[in-house]
């Protein structure tokens, strides 16, 4: 599930050409995939507790496989959205919460940190090798074969799923809380959609020539509206419980300090992780001009230490304090990010990412080795699927905000740096600088020097001004990356203040 997202990201232009649409069309499909998952995850978890975890997992796999096949055969954007955004999104919403509960039911408590760590590591490794696989498939075969391969993998998973044990489901099950499902999906959907569109709309103040609602960006309006609907969801769930019904989410779970601590750390982990996986490929592929394959190879060090930490810490230090591991993980992520943005300069090459990614990967793996076990152990066994839904909702929110925040800060810093450099450069006439200020008021694009040079040449700009713009673009890109990475480093440090909710003893 994680792999095809990274493959889709690295193959956007090729996919757009194959299905007869634009890059914006494919980006819409990517946005909708995230949106469907975020909206459906809590309901998917509840359905798993009603029909059985293994059955929900199997049904989710079938739906996901059907989506992969539809995507592989998609002749146009509409079919692509049906297959990839909707069918795969719904399948993921059934699979991911069920995985959390099935691990708890099939692995003894002492083995769960390692099991959850391996699952989280699998997702992060897929993000790292996605550009490599996507680049190879797109260059030598077709992106469609990646999705054909997924269908075969789903068939193999379904065959092996018979070995998974599951607790029997009660014969009499209360009906699904449809009102709660609608409210939770609407609230989360509006908030996440607003976050995902923040780069085009702005967070609070509308971007130049962008849409506005009563003078505000639609992003903040949607986030506020989504928050109000989620408050109504909470009111409704309390009412259902008072009437003796079966709520979608037992709100008493949020009074559990250990459980909320685990969810909060998941949010921080995925916020920083998604921001890293957004910024580092930009540096490697756009700023340095590496191919998708080379970009994937350069990100691989992160996967190595991530896997070693996620599997090794529970194996070799089974009794270590989860709180201590989480704090070491956050500090390792912080150290990796700081060492990365302080190493960036115009003469730096791709080699500067290796050591920082080793630190960042270890930090992510350290958190992954503990958090799944922490959240599951905080609640009774019958509520593990609900935990899975909430846990994956937290990770979706974190990943969405991390990508959007990193992108917004990067573009804002890049634009400010580029325009300031153009204004102060003696080779750029004042009228050209003034025109650039007007045209780039909504944000300068993060583009390679080769693309910028082609655009300026086609516009008939003189060689002196072109070279000045290229020099400023080189420095501005690095300024944008530094600001985005610095913000991610601060967020990793901020996570330390919430780590006190993580227990000091293994479950």
UniProtKB/TrEMBL annotation:
It comes from the Bacteria. The keyword Transmembrane applies. The chain crosses the membrane at residues 12-36, 56-75, 81-103, 115-137, 143-164, 176-196, 216-236, 263-284, 296-313, 325-343, 355-376, 397-422, 480-498. GO terms for molecular function: transmembrane transporter activity. It holds the Pfam family MFS_1. Its main location: membrane. This is MFS transporter. It comes from Pengzhenrongella frigida.
